[in-house]
Structure formats: C-alpha cells, structure tokens
C-alpha cells in the first residue's frame, strides 16, 4: 500500500497548487435549460469543437469553460434525451442554450461494439448501454446490480460484495468466459482466471457509462470475451470536476428466515477531480462498503449415496448442503452409510464483509487532442464465493497500474494487475480439518489428524454394536453422540484456535489459499480511416504475460516458475454503400498462446438502414477461449489422485496423457480379475485372461474452446419517442473444457505389437505401481444454443421513461454426453420492466424496476454437478429522490428487492433478501 499512499499524497498536493502558469481565467460561462419547461439541465456536456476542452453543467444548469481563445469558435452542447446543438460562442462569452427533447436517449453513441464511435441504432451486433443518467436514476443499490435489468443479462448474486455477470448461457459463479473491462483494463484476478464480480472495480461516483455486448466478442477483444463483454468507462477529470460525496446507509436481513435480525449496511464514496487550465488534471476516488453478508444456510440433505426418500436430518449418512465436514462418510458393516458430524457454514466463514476501492489518476494533455494518463487502482475486500467448494475471499487484494497515451484516432495502453489472496481459505476444507483435530480413540486419547476419520468411524461402529458400556446399542443418535465426544464447539477457544491455524496454512495441510500472481498487458489501436478514406479501417494488437506465484500450493512453481505469454492482433474494415443505406463490416483477429496453436476469429456483419428510423442487422460471429493458467498448469496432489493441468509441459515425464488406461476400463478389469482370482485362477493367468479389458486412454492435451453464432436483429424508432429492439441468435460450441480420470502404470501400456502389456495390467492392481490423474482436456462433443430478445423503450410525456424487455434462451444438447458439457445454468425466460421519471417535479424523481425469471436446474462443481433447483422468482427495486439544488445535494430512499423475497440464485450460495437504504449525495460540478 506504500506506493498508493505516496501517489495519493502527491495528488492531494497538486490539488492545492494554484500557480499562475496553470491557472486561467474562466473565459466562457453560461447555462443550459430545457426548451419546453425552462428548467435547468444538470449533467449537460459542453465541448469546444475540435478539442477535448469541455465542461459539464451543475445542478443549476450552469457551466464555465476556462480558455484564453474561444471567440468565434463553435461549442457543442449535448445531453442524453435532447437534441445536440452547435452554438457560436458570442463575443461577450456568456450564453444560454435551450435544448429540445429528442430521441437521443433512444439513439446513443456506443464504442464497444466496433471499438469506434457509432450510433447504437447501426451497431453491427446487439449492444446495451447504461449512461451516467441511467445509473443515477437506477433503483438498484449500485451500478453493477442495475445491469440485472438489461436485456439478455444473467446475474448471479452471491452476496453484498459478489455478483457475477454473464450472457447467453453456460453460466457459473466464477465466469472465465465473460470479459470485464474498466477503461480498457481487464478486471480479472490472474490466479482465479475471472473477474470477481463487483468486489473489485470502480466506484459508482466515477462511472460515466457501461456498455454490454451479449455474445462472442473475441474478434475484437480476444479469448476472454468468449460469451460477451462489459466495458465500463470512468469520468475524465477534465470533463467532470469538483467534489462528489455519497453516503449510503441502510439495513438488510429484515425478517431473515435464520432469525438473526436486521443488520446495518454502509457505503461511503468520495470523488474529487481538478483541472489546471486545459493541460493537467487529476482525480481521486475512495469507496468503502461494509455490512453483514447474507447467509448460506440450506441444510438440505444431498447425499448421492442415500435414496431420496431416506434423506433428511435423521439420515445417518446425511450430507447437508451448507454444512461442511459431513462429506466424509463410510459404509459401516451392519449399519449402513454414516457421515461425520459437520459444522454449519456460518461457524466457518466470515459474514461481516467489506469492499475498499481506491483510485487515483493523473491526466496530461500534451496537445489539444493527445492525452497521457497514469492511473492506480487498489481494491481489497471479502466475499463468499461458490466454486468447487465454498471459498472465503478474505482481505483479497487487487492492485492495478495503468499508463496510457490516447489521441483522436489511436491509443497505446500498458497495465499490470497483481493479486494477494492474504487470508483467503476453503470453507469446506476448513470444516473437515477442524473435525480431525479432536477425535479420541476408544481409550480416550486424541489421535493424530491422519487417523482421525478412521478412528471416529471405529468409535461409531463400536457404540452402535453395543461394545461401549453405558451407550444404547442399535441407536444412531447414541453412537453419534459417543463418536463426537471431545468435539470442538463453535465459538469455543479450541475451535477458534484450530480455525485460525488452518486458515493460515496454505496447501493440502491447511485450508488457506495462496496466490500472489500477476498479469502484464500492453495493447494499442490505430484508426487508419483519416488516411485511407475509401473505407473505415482500424487495427490493433496486444501482448499479455502471466506470472503465477503460489509457492507450490496450486502449481509446481517453487522451482519451475509458471509463466505464460500470449499475443493477438486484429483488423477491421467497414464500408457504407447504397447511398449510406448499407453498412458492411469485416473483422478478423489472430491470437497465439505459447502453449497452443494460433487461432483466427472472424466476424462479418451487415446493417441495412432504409431510412434514419429503421435498421436491420445480420452478423456471423466467432469466439474462442484459451484455457486459464490454472487449467493449463495446476498440479495438485490430493492423495489418491493428482489434479493435472492440460499444458504438455505440465505433465512432461509423468506419462499421464501418453501412457494411461481409462478409469472405467481399469474398474472392469479389476472386477473380472478379482472374480477369477477368487475362483482359483493363478495370478498371472488371471491377468492374462482379463488384460484386454483394459483400454488405453486417448486424452488430448488441452486446447481452446470454440464457438460460432449467427444473429439477426432489428432496431428502430417506431416514433421519435418509441424504440424497439429485436434479435435472434443461433450458436454452436465445441471443445468444451472437461476433466477426465485416467490410471497410469509404471510399465508401458502397450507392447510393440499394439497389444496390452501384461506388466502394465499387473501394475494397476498395485497402488504402489500406479497413479491416478484427473486431467484437463476437451470434449469432442458439439452442442447448440439459440435465443431471442425483445426490448421496448419509450420516452413518455412529462419526463416518464419506460423500458420493457424479455429474453428467451434454449440449450440444445444434440448428441453430446452431458458429462462433457459445462452447465448451461440459464433460465429459458426472463423479463424486466423499468419505469422512471427523474423530474417528476422540480425536486422529486423516482424509479421502479421489476425483474422476473423462470425456474431452472443449477449444476455446479460445488455439488459435483448434481442438479439443484432454482425456483422462479421476481425482484422489485424502487427509489424516490429529492433534490436540494442550493446545497447541491440529493436524498434518495431506495430498496433493492423491496418485497424481501429471499432467493438463492446459485445452488449452494446465500439466500439473498432485501436491502433498504437512504443515500445522501453531494455533487459539485464545474461552475
């Protein structure tokens, strides 16, 4: 954190400077009002044409523009929902501009779809946008949550500080198929391989806009944008100056089914930006959120080895969803399946969560059109995340540095991301480890952890069988009570000591998760259009480098450091023909990871606009996703099996891929061999007789996933105030990443003639001569998806805005093996409706948003891909705001999930209820 403090102090020092070389007298001032009502317009943009100099109006509609030479020049005045105007600056340098309402709200300028500015109506692919005005009006608790009301979005809320976003299926709580960029910087954690939702990122006060592309964007953005892209743009300190402060205070856990009672929630955000003339500017952001997270307290018995009719609290083999330690089970002779007594998640994790976001940026305009930027982001927080287990990302820190040079038609950007998992840990492993710390043998002595499970089951069996004096025989309850003697009670000193101990031990001997991995990225883009003229032409490329550091806990990286590099380049050409009615665009990108063959991803699109109001689009899109670094290089020995990443270098010398049998054939061989041996067949003959039941595995090394999709759509203005957006897509996917278990013998699997080697067959019968591997690989199966969406946006009289949308998504498994396909985890039908009016009166505004989605089955590694039902649910968000213009302050009373419906959005995750808050916002824009 030391570097952060130095930078912040430097920026604070700059904020107090007023040297004459930097200061300029405000040469232009004025006000912007609504032409119909005469009311002042806050947030209108004023730009001096041909430069980047500009301003934004304050709550009274006023602005000032420092400049020494503005006479006789044009001023561009714009605001969402109003007609753009170009105004000649008068000699007295004071003016009032009256903006007329227009359909601009329905025809926004977007950048992410083609990496150049264009009308959203003529975007070649589906795109959605939230601007600062929409974010300000949203009834959701933050801008990230507001995306849940955007057409086509799947959002999974796991807690206050962790929400994951996805589009077009194959959803999960850790989504490595969806790219999140903040000012062009990939917000992923290098070690996890995906963005940690809203835990890291940007403060709401600094968000200018968020653009979302559903579907593959790999042709322009590379491998991570396999399923879509979210591009968040922050506010430039030249354009948004002054002090902004926001205090949000509220409660959640109202009427919580756990009976724990309401808890306080608080979020404090501060933004300060200052420009020195038109040359230097800086901004500082700080945001701190804290509260009590929602609880994962579903104790449904999900034991797969117990028939459904016998599951429940009285099942001796119970495996409760959010109780950990009870996964350890055995089948005891004469008793049946018995599981250990586990600990509830609330006793193992941390529900008092926080999120700290710090940002500082320096901007320097080298020329009127060229700007240099240095930005520093430090994010730290806690979140409960559901993956193969439940993980507590505790004090998890992400630090990012960005250097950028940006001009009118180019940019060069370099950034680094460093993570530190600090006190993060695996909650399920923690429960199992604590359970092994207190077990006593039949003599009353505490045994070592490696013997604890076996000893506990021995105690249980003895008590149940009537071999323990004073314990009722044939009673599961009595046997469990006896086996649990000495058990550490949650909250006791012994329990807390063991919990703290194992949290701080990383690797197999503890529950701690250690990663201090880094990501380095350099990229650039150049728009050649001004030089070519005949067509619109853009090109760009990037270099990326991963440096993983886990100290041997996840990778074999104590000596052999894990380093991965990749590069990519793209070219895009666009041409309008037929009197500007038909826009054709071709894009192509080539990417190369050091461990995989190069990959080319094209995109082709056509937009036909018979007039300015109606636009028909069609596109062919391709996507690909490189396996994450853990997919490639994990090497984790968990005892009976080694989990092995699929990069060839990771398994060199092990024979796991080249010299192994399928696990199913080893099972068939072992069963047949055992029967013959029991019938008196000598060992060598039994091996020779059954060895041909063994099947050599043919597991390919890991390679990228692939997709292609066709999309058609229509976007048009039925009236100047009514926008309709329709789309349909059909996609195909192949090479999905999967895991496959193989058994590798010491001897060669095959003889020279291609037959099964008897020595290898003998090896698999002996634990010392064989090794089981769980390999990362790809499935050859193909599947398809299709979907459609419809959206209607209407700007109504008196300032009302209505947005209604619905989405349908369908997964077609075709002939694929379900075990080879990642879970679709997407409801078939979703719908949203938002009604708002920012100017209900001079001072009052409101917004109401409704979200509904159909029930579906959730499959996840947390439950070993066994389904868990996510019921149909609806959410209602609402807010009412009151402005105090003289104080530049707005009060907002809001509720996220107003009806307080406790819903689980990913099976095994927390049940999320309502959040009720009061927000006080102070905004000082340039005036």
Describe, in plain words, how this protein is organized in 3D:
The chain is mainly β and 927 residues long. The chain folds into 4 domains: 2-101, Carboxypeptidase-like, regulatory domain (Immunoglobulin-like), CATH 2.60.40; 106-295 and 351-424 and 785-923, no CATH class; 308-344 and 428-503, no CATH class; 631-701 and 738-778, no CATH class. Helix content is 12%, strand content 44%. It contains 13 helices and 54 strands. A hairpin with a 3-residue loop joins strand 20 and strand 21 (280-292). The two termini are 35 Å apart. InterPro entries: Beta-barrel_TonB (IPR000531), Beta-barrel_TonB_sf (IPR036942), CarboxyPept-like_regulatory (IPR008969), Plug_dom (IPR012910), Plug_dom_sf (IPR037066), TonB-dep_rcpt-like (IPR039426). One of its GO terms (cellular component) is cell outer membrane. Belongs to the TonB-dependent receptor family. Residues 122-228 form the TonB-dependent receptor plug domain.
Short account of what is shown:
By secondary structure, the protein is mainly beta.
What's the Cα radius of gyration? 31 Å
Terminal residue distance: 35 Å
Query: How confident overall, as mean pLDDT?
Result: 91
Overall 3D geometry? globular
β-strand percent reads 35-45%
Number of helices: 13
- What count of domains describes the coordinates? 4
The biggest sheet amounts to: 22 strands, antiparallel, barrel
- Poorly predicted residue ranges: 1-26
The number of strands is: 54
